[in-house]
């Protein structure tokens, strides 16, 4: 039931491979419990972290998982791929079921990636209207034009999508290094924005998503669980 929500009778019928009529009989006999309490209503709405038991034996149940991972350059942000190394290969197999990536980075980018089995949490962070800020350190091939700061702040017109990008913050740290903060995630957006100045991106490293910063103690390829405070902070910025 990871990532699933719906009626109690429907989910039990699918899991037990029995007709819904048989499920209703189990409910009437008091043999089904939900989060430790006996239930009888077939139309109860469940979320993905409910714990269901039949005759005291757990059928479905798990806890929410929230992770940060320091993505190395050269691997892809995918749960599986037949030919290329993926983020999931950096995690223990026991964490894989139901886990999905919250905001991907392309193969050649590095830095903070969030993963969870809580689809509501990830959807709240990634929905377009949430405007969750993401902070990147960008290394360029050439010195950064000072006028790029204003151009990023004003937004740029992308003719392929027929949109103007939302205002972005550009801070020049060194002649060829800048911090960029976006509140959207258009296709290769940062590379395309610097492309307007004919300045190729050499490296792109994500430092922060919302209020969650990449743990400086994590080497590339390492991961850890988010703290309860970090999970809550991610929700706060959306709210």
UniProtKB/TrEMBL annotation:
Its EC number is 5.4.99.-. Residues 66-194 form the Pseudouridine synthase RsuA/RluA-like domain. GO terms for molecular function: 16S rRNA pseudouridine(516) synthase activity; RNA binding. InterPro entries: PsdUridine_s_RsuA/RluB/E/F_cat, PsdUridine_synth_cat_dom_sf, PsdUridine_synth_RsuA/RluA, PsdUridine_synth_RsuA/RluB/E/F, PsdUridine_synth_RsuA/RluB_CS, RsuA_PseudoU_synthase, S4_RNA-bd_sf, TruA/RsuA/RluB/E/F_N. Keywords: Isomerase, RNA-binding. The keyword RNA-binding applies. The keyword Isomerase applies. It is an enzyme of class 5 (isomerase). Pfam families: PseudoU_synth_2 (PF00849). One of its GO terms (biological process) is rRNA processing. It catalyses: uridine(516) in 16S rRNA = pseudouridine(516) in 16S rRNA. Responsible for synthesis of pseudouridine from uracil-516 in 16S ribosomal RNA. PANTHER family: PSEUDOURIDINE SYNTHASE, PSEUDOURIDINE SYNTHASE FAMILY PROTEIN-RELATED. NCBIfam families: pseudouridine synthase. Belongs to the pseudouridine synthase RsuA family. This is Pseudouridine synthase. It comes from Shewanella cyperi.
